[in-house]
Design brief:
Distance between the termini: 61 Å
Oligomer: single chain
Radius of gyration: 29 Å
Helix content: 40-55%
Number of strands: 29
Largest sheet: 8 strands, mixed
Shape: globular
Structural class: alpha/beta
Strand order of the largest sheet: 20-19-17-15-14-13-28-29
Strand content: 15-25%
Number of helices: 25
């Protein structure tokens, strides 16, 4: 029960939740033993702090906090393969082909060109392992299916497949997203990819499985109906995301448009969707039940309406696949609904904390997810905003003024609460989010979402009845898209920002807390001093970040891990930046290393402007990632060779350069030099009219020099160009470090070329277990025969060379022993 003492509101559940969060963080960072010891020490000192500053909290809250924190330490320990039992499927995710048997443990997720389900493995044996026994295993992997948009197996069915069982791997770069840990926290340890026609299916007859399959059939049926009525359009994908939870078909560019307007939360089932749908259902249910006067007078009508609302929200969550974010949204909505049923709605912060406790006790790793942090950040700030509004009498005005002010306060408070998180995760801040939310939330949330859900209900009764509503939703969403485009196109509507570090995030939220308590409580001097200290620390942290960005002191060359491709960042000691290539994948792969690898690395380094971007040659594995970079960074100079391509990526890249006025430079056939701070780049020209020159041999080759240090960037040159360079440049090729030509192909790194370069170390940029077999064993032997130190991005991750004066140091992201 909340109570007030000297103007300070005590919130027991808030403290219990904070203890739980602290336990999870300590368990994740320090492990079970050390995390538990540190938590117990903190809890032991908690009593003195509470008495002196917070005037104590109820003893029961302290005891519950102790139990919650211990549970948090236990649940916060990140799962690792070494802690798994011998029969776990993770121990067999080694890239070999197995005959795998397992049960489907999820609804289907549709992606461009593939369908994905979770597979709970039951047994496996090597595909060509004569005499080897079938092994009983457990654990989950992804099953990726190609060749069919619809897959005939459903939830609970037993399937058999012969395919490579691959581990989940990261792109190992500083500040990169830890995808492997992210999936392990969901219980996923590997993946299997095959054609849907090659999967054997044995249908389950269990009652639960048949029910889930019927539910999924309805879900897929409505999904296909929307695509049939609206076509493969943005409106269709948004409506499906809101109603069915299938959001993977929404293109990244559309997500960007809504993110720039601060309304990205509208594109997925979230706490907002649950809340809006719950309110609409409650209003309708309460209106109907109010006709029974005895129920209305006794108050049972309102409680019954909340019970009906909870039931319908559960059905909505179940129908949409009950993804982790949907489950959390339902729990949050359910706890708040129960607070109204139990007439405890006034204790809003305790209710929010109780919802957080339930979620984190069930899923401790939810703490590290974007959806959890954004949802709770938004709701907490909305509650705090209304709390302050009531304190200053703003809720006692005229009813129309109160409603108008509340409509503005919700997006303003939610935007303020999520602003640091959106800056951290999306490197973007929207300056129009309040106005955009005021327009788009009512249209999409209060109109399209209920109409879409009603269309699904009618689809279950008679599909023809749902056609007009689906068409109407499509038209309304197209209007919302136009509004989002209008807000996005306004001058200074949004801005890119560097990634704030963890200390900055903590300080920002401590500053918000200090400001809230300064306005809310009676201890003005205490919280004013606290706020001043936090602001000074935040300024000091920002100053240190700016100094590291613009005056780092040493020159750093980072060869990024972009898979089978190439991308390097050169950052001079005076802060000048040069990006060489952007990586990329050819074929059907939709993964964009520019968006998901290179740009996050640059933002993590607080780089928003690139003095020079170099495209060595217009091949997919060097070029495709640069499209996103040119579009989202300020680029002063674009250096490329004379080659042109008719590919979509090349044409779009040229269009961006024209639109943004990015100047292009072609080094030509002679030697060309560029200064980048203390570092100097010397480009070796390509002989004009040589009959054996191709796209690879025609690529830009240059040497970076600073004092006595040098590094040669050889691109994808092969034997012909290597011979030309060896004959024409001779000793000028001599370098301390060589970026291995053509990813270690047998057609490159010839002895006559290596003799001229004479490197001490070589860095090979290649993908793990790539289909080309790079680097070739003969190439590795050539380097080892010359006593070169070998670094490989598929083994060592990103490789960083730090140069100060004439000395240099090579630091691989993943430390290993022995040769690469």
């Amino acid at each position: 029960m909340s109570r007030t003492r000297s103007g300070l509101v005590h919130l027991p559940m808030v403290w219990v939740m904070m203890f739980l969060i602290l336990g999870i963080l300590l368990g994740d960072a320090l492990g079970m033993v050390w995390g538990g010891l540190v938590f117990l020490l903190f809890w032991a000192g908690y009593g003195a702090m509470a008495r002196s500053l917070l005037e104590g909290t109820p003893a029961v809250a302290a005891c519950l906090g102790l139990l919650a924190g211990i549970w948090g330490v236990y649940g916060g320990v990140s799962p690792g393969a070494s802690h798994l039992p011998a029969g776990h499927v993770a121990r067999y995710c080694d890239g070999r082909v197995y005959d795998i048997q397992g049960r489907i443990a999820s609804f289907q997720e549709h992606y461009p060109g593939k369908t994905r389900v979770k597979l709970s493995a039951c047994a496996l044996k090597p595909h060509k392992g004569d005499g080897q026994h079938r092994r009983i295993v457990k654990g989950k992997v992804f099953l990726n299916l190609y060749g069919l948009e619809q897959f005939c197996a459903g939830y609970g069915d037993l399937v058999t497949v012969s395919a490579a069982l691959k581990p989940v791997r990261n792109f190992n770069n500083p500040g990169g997203f830890d995808y492997r840990t992210f999936l392990r926290r969901q219980g996923i340890y590997g993946s299997v990819s095959t054609k849907a026609s090659k999967v054997g299916v044995y249908q389950s007859h269990a009652l639960k499985d048949r029910f889930m399959q019927q539910l999924e059939a309805l879900r897929n049926g409505f999904f296909n109906l929307v695509l049939m009525r609206l076509g493969n359009t943005d409106a269709a994908h948004i409506l499906n995301a809101m109603v069915t939870g299938k959001k993977r078909l929404i293109p990244p560019e559309l997500r960007d448009r809504f993110a720039k307007t601060g309304t990205a939360h509208l594109l997925a089932i979230s706490g907002l969707h649950m809340s809006i749908l719950g309110l609409v259902v409650f209003w309708i249910s309460f209106g109907l039940l109010s006709f029974f006067r005895p129920w209305l007078i006794s108050g049972r009508a309102k409680k019954a309406a909340w019970v009906l609302t909870l039931g319908l929200l559960f059905v909505y969550g179940l129908f949409s696949g009950f993804s982790p974010s949907t489950r959390r949204a339902f729990i949050m909505a359910a706890v708040f609904a129960l607070s109204f049923i139990l007439e405890r709605e006034a204790l809003s912060f305790n209710t929010l904390a109780l919802a957080g406790l339930v979620i984190l006790l069930l899923e401790p790793f939810a703490l590290f997810t974007i959806s959890f942090q954004l949802s709770f950040g938004a709701v907490a700030f909305i509650l705090a905003g209304f709390d302050l509004a009531r304190k200053f009498g703003m809720m006692e005005k005229h009813q129309i003024i109160v409603r108008g002010g509340s409509a503005c306060l919700v997006p303003l408070a939610a935007g303020l609460g999520t602003l640091p998180l959106t800056a951290c995760y999306f490197n973007m801040v929207s300056h129009v989010q309040v106005f955009a939310n005021l327009m788009l939330v009512p249209l999409v949330g209060f109109v399209c979402l209920p109409l879409g859900f009603l269309a699904f209900v009618l689809f279950c009764i008679c599909p023809d009845f749902s056609f007009p509503l689906v068409d109407l939703c499509g038209g309304l969403i197209n209007g919302a898209l136009a509004l989002a485009g209008f807000f996005e196109g306004l001058p200074f509507a949004w801005a890119r920002v560097g990634t704030p570090d963890k200390l900055a995030l903590v300080l920002i939220y401590l500053g918000f807390l200090g400001a809230y308590l300064l306005l809310k409580t009676g201890k003005k001097k205490v919280w004013a001093a606290f706020l001043a200290v936090v602001l000074l620390a935040l300024l000091a942290d920002a100053g240190m970040a700016a100094w590291k960005r613009f005056r780092p002191g040493d020159t750093r060359i980072t060869v990024l891990d972009v898979g089978q491709g190439n991308s390097c960042l050169i950052r001079s000691g005076t802060g000048h930046t040069v990006l060489v290539d952007g990586g990329g994948f050819s074929g059907l792969s939709a993964f964009d290393p520019g968006r998901y690898i290179v740009a996050p690395f640059l933002w993590q380094q607080h780089i928003l402007t690139l003095d020079m971007v170099v495209l060595t040659h217009p091949e997919a594995d060097h070029m495709n990632g640069l499209v996103f970079i040119l579009e989202n960074f300020k680029v002063k100079k674009f250096v490329k060779n004379q080659d042109v391509r008719d590919t979509g990526a090349y044409q779009k890249m040229m269009e961006i350069c024209r639109k943004k006025g990015i100047g292009q430079v072609h080094p030509g056939s002679g030697t060309r030099q560029f200064d980048s701070g203390r570092a100097r780049l010397s480009f070796f020209g390509v002989p004009a009219g040589h009959p054996d020159i191709n796209f690879n041999d025609n690529c830009l080759v240059f040497k970076l020099c600073q004092d006595n240090f040098s590094m040669l960037f050889a691109g994808d040159i092969m034997t012909t160009r290597e011979q030309i360079l060896a004959d024409s440049q001779g000793g000028r090729l001599d370098s301390d470090i060589l970026l291995c030509p053509h990813h270690g192909s047998q057609s490159s790194s010839n002895d006559f070329f290596l003799e001229k370069v004479s490197p001490e170390s070589v860095i090979i940029s290649c993908g793990f277990a790539n289909r080309y077999g790079f680097p070739h064993s003969l190439v590795l032997n050539r380097y080892m025969d010359r006593k070169c130190r070998i670094f490989r991005t598929d083994i060592h991750g990103a490789v960083t060379i730090s140069v100060r004066g004439g000395t240099y140091n090579i630091l691989p992201y993943i430390q290993t022993t022995g040769k690469g």
